[in-house]
Amino acid sequence: MPKYDPAEIEPRWQSFWEEKGMFKTPQYSELPKYYMLVMFPYPSGTMHVGHVKNYVIGDAVARYKRMCGYNVLHPFGYDAFGLPAENAAIERKIHPQDWTMKNINTIRGQIKKLGISYDWDREVITCVESYYKWTEWVFLKLYEAGLAYKKKAAVNWCPKCMTSLANEQVKDGKCERCDTPVTIKHLEQWFFKITDYAERLLKNLDKLTGWPEHVKTMQRNWIGESKGARIRFKVDGSEMQIEVFTTRPDTLWGVTFMALAPESPLIEHIVLPEFHQDLEKFLEKVGQQDRFRRGSADVEKEGFFTGRYVINPVNGEKVPIYVANYVLMEYGTGAVMGVPAHDQRDYEFASKYGIPIKQVIKPLQDAVVGKAYDGPGTMINSGELTGTPVPDGMEKVLSWLEERGLGKRAVQYKLRDWLISRQRYWGAPIPVVYCDHCGVVPIPEKDLPVRLPYNVQFLPTGQSPLMLSEEFRKTTCPKCGGPALRDVDTMDTFVDSSWYFLRYVNPTLTDVPFIKEDVDYWLPVDQYVGGVEHAILHLLYSRFITMVLHDLGYLSFDEPFENLFTQGMIYKDGAKMSKSKGNVVSPDDMIEKYGADTLRLYILFMGPPEKDAEWNDSGIEGVHRFIKKAWNLIDQIISIPDRANGQLTQEEKELRRKLHSSLKKITQDMEGGFKFNTAISSLMELTNTVSDYMDKIPQEDWNTGVLKEFAEKFLLMISPFAPHFAEELWHRMGKDTSIMKENWPKYDPNALTVEEIEIAVQVNGKLRDRIKIPVNADQDQVLQIALMSEKVTKFLSGEPKKVHYVQNRLLNIIG
Ligand code: ANZ
Ligand code: ZN
User: Fold this and answer.
1) For a surface tag, which of 12, 60, 553, 712 has the fewest beta carbons within 10 Å of its beta carbon?
2) The architecture CATH gives domain 225-413
3) How far is the CA of 489 from the centre of ligand 2 (A)?
4) Which ligand is nearest to the CA of 327?
């Protein structure tokens, strides 16, 4: 009997599949399409088993769907630009391109050894010219549509990475990548106007019924819709007005001060001259505070009185104007109407500076003293609106304000425009030039790509490395032919990944990024699988770019991903795997030790795939024992010659029942969403049942028909998880076509019916009744049925003392 030898089997089938082109996807087919997409990786090193989980899940789905009769698109690529690759390259003093390409080769090799069924002809690498040419094209399209603009802005600056960061890349005031506290720098930057799409990005979430609820919630919170009003206050003794955004227009009568953000451009026009010097000092102090924490509840409130007042439009009251640290310039209008009685931050501010606190909402129940009350209640001290219940009466308040022209309804989003300029080398160039004569001039599409030069001093210095390349920077204006300078920044890597799923459809076209009919056929993606860490940024940006391209007529759909699945992480020793912690498990080591199929099965068996799971060496050992056992079992079955099997015996019927009920259950697990772990445990149980049968029944009595049916169906069912194993035994069974070409098996409903038989029931040795029981029911079950018969119980005086059961024949109760 040949031993299970994955090291011999697996490479052989990998070459076979590749030579026969079995992973290739025809562009069109009679079959319905299924686009199975996994999030492509940053090639910033080798992969560990945690990374691989994503691809193993995707492959199980892709292989299963092929068997179900779909034309499956299952591509792979690399998010190859960006800081991770660049930083790693700098650390190792090697060019980012060389470093990245080397890693890509390693990763590709790792994936191939796993037998993942990617269509390698469609591989996409974002840092190669043929791809980033079209990333530049995306920029141009946004620019033409008025959705890319440049402005001087205070940006988040990471002093270690020496680049600006999007708000999304700042976590708790620190750089997401290196944990360095982020500072502020004023730079001319390019932005994408994602805020124009805030409402649609929010509303469309309701359509995405195939997305996990928690991901949609994260997106909703990130977009952060607030409904309220904008209200203008006149500055006393001036023509100037200050507009505020408030979610509580019902508290307008309780305003006792006005607060401006320290960055507000209004300040210099408002503050009295004699206050100027002190104001400077105040602004300097606030400028040193952490801009991301300034607005949070626990930060000490600080303010500066400008010497001026505004007039409350509803009651004519004069209230002082302050500059306050907790007001942020980026939100609303950068100005707040202070209502200390009903807003906690205003309350703390007013208490500190001796500003009156005026109650205008009467709580439904007694409120906590010494705190702002922000709960429901009734408006008081509020002129005509006194008595209005809130928040129920908010509509009435808004209409009242609008009718009198005092304010207007407004919706405010937390979402900011997407800052895409990076002062780094390793990214797609921004395709514009600056001409003294013509100003900002986009590069014409026919002149794309703007090539990223290889020979550049790319170490970060705080200014863009491309600035140092005269050869890159100096050019001529496409409009007037005069001298011009190129933009020396590169694009945020999230731009690269915001459209890669379109490129997989037509990965090699050189004159267009994709063909509309083709992407319309393949997209939306049927199933997207990836890490929950991309719940906000990547998914939001991809949705945005898709909407823009849709609106420009390039696509017929406006949401790219129909179904989303977020897989959990693999932990080792209770922690996330990382090189620095030294708890990394390499897929290569596991493949060497157990083979790819064992690794694949174990990753899928570890638990529900959406949950985090702990890597366990004895766990993979156990899975390896299972696969060896299944190998031996099937090998034995294959080796017995077929013979005529008569009527099925009871055991044989049972065996078929188990086979078909497993098939039914596993099909449900596959259809009902990623329940690979329970599917695999059904396969294990089934193996045990068959093995018990073969142990119990002498070999010459084995029903070869039933056993071969088992072997065949078992191989089909395990093939999405352990494809090499399945393919090998499939051929050993004498099949001459690939198991990949087979259909997913259908269960036989007739095999599922449980047969009943009649058995005799004795009480104290005397026959008292005959009862019907399901074949092979156990003793407890049979006893229960027997005790429902009066003919039995009337001979018993209480609980049975002893029970003797001869399976499927006779039950004797001693009472
Ligand atoms: C008056 C008021 C009274 C407010 C009250 C709240 C309670 P969300 O829900 O986050 O949208 N606000 C407006 N712009 C601000 C800015 N640039 N910096 C800091 N705070 C700002 O919060 C909206 C509320 O946050 C607004 O409603 C405003 O305070 C404040 F009893 O206006 B409110
Ligand atoms: Zn010009």
Assistant:
1) 553
2) Alpha-Beta Complex (3.90)
3) 20
4) 1
**Ligand 1 atom at shortest distance from the alpha carbon of 329:** 17
- Note whether 598 and 585 are within 8 A (CB): no
**CA geometry: angle at 697 spanning 693 and 698, to 5°?**
140
The kind and range of the H/E element at 310 are strand 303-311
397: Cα within 13 Å, side-chain hemisphere? 28
Within 6 Å (CB) of ligand 1, which residues are found?
Answer: 226, 245-248, 251, 261, 295, 326-328, 331-332, 334, 336-337, 339, 342-343, 374, 412
d(CA 308, CA 237): 9
CA-to-CA dists, residue 138 to 40, 50, 141, 502, angstroms:
19, 32, 5, 12
SS3 content of the chain, % helix, strand, coil (to 5): 40, 20, 40
User: Which stretch of 99-113, 341-355, 788-802 has the lowest confidence by average pLDDT?
Assistant: 788-802
Residue nearest to atom 19 of ligand 1 (CA): 327
261 CA distance to ligand 1 middle (Å): 12
> What predicted TM-score, i.e. pTM, was given to this entire model?
0.88
Edge-to-edge strand list for the sheet holding 183-192: 163-165, 148-158, 183-192, 418-419
From 221, 222, 233, 248, the mutation candidate for ligand 1 (largest count of ligand atoms within 8 A of CB) is 248
Fold of 590-607+615-751: Isoleucyl-tRNA Synthetase; Domain 1 (1.10.730)
Structural element, H or E, at residue 554 = none
Angle at Cα 804 formed by Cα 801 and Cα 805, nearest 5°?
A: 140
Ligand 1 atom 33, closest CA: 246
Residue 615 in contact with residue 603, Cβ under 8 Å?
A: no
**How far apart (Å, rounded) are the C-alpha atoms in residues 353 and 344?**
14
29-137+497-575 and 590-607+615-751: identical CATH topology: no
- CATH 3.40.50.620 for domain 29-137+497-575, yes or no, is yes
Task: Output the CA 434–ligand 2 centroid distance in Å.
Answer: 8
CA distance 566 to 58: 11
* pLDDT tens digits for range 272-309: 989 988 999 998 888 777 766 777 788 899 999 999 99
pLDDT in tens, 555-571: 999 999 999 999 999 99
How many Cβ atoms sit within 10 Å of the Cβ of residue 422? 28
Domain positions in the chain are 29-137+497-575, 225-413, 590-607+615-751, 756-814
Q: Where are the alpha helices (DSSP H) in 452-586?
A: 470-473, 493-496, 500-503, 516-522, 537-551
Q: Which of 741, 597, 193 is nearest to 419 (CA)?
A: 193
For residue 789, give Cα distances in angstroms to 289, 771, 810. Answer: 83, 8, 15
pLDDT digits (tens, 9 = 90+) for 629-657: 999 999 999 998 888 777 888 889 889 99
Radius of gyration of the chain (CA): 35
Q: Residue 292: its pLDDT value, please?
A: 66
- Looking at per-residue pLDDT, the higher value among 450 and 177 belongs to 450
How many CB atoms sit inside 10 A of residue 316's CB? 7
Q: Is the pLDDT of residue 113 over 90?
A: yes
**DSSP per-residue letters across 458-485:** -S--SS-GGGG-HHHHEEE-TTT-SEEE
Cβ atoms of 346 and 340 within 8 Å: the answer is: yes
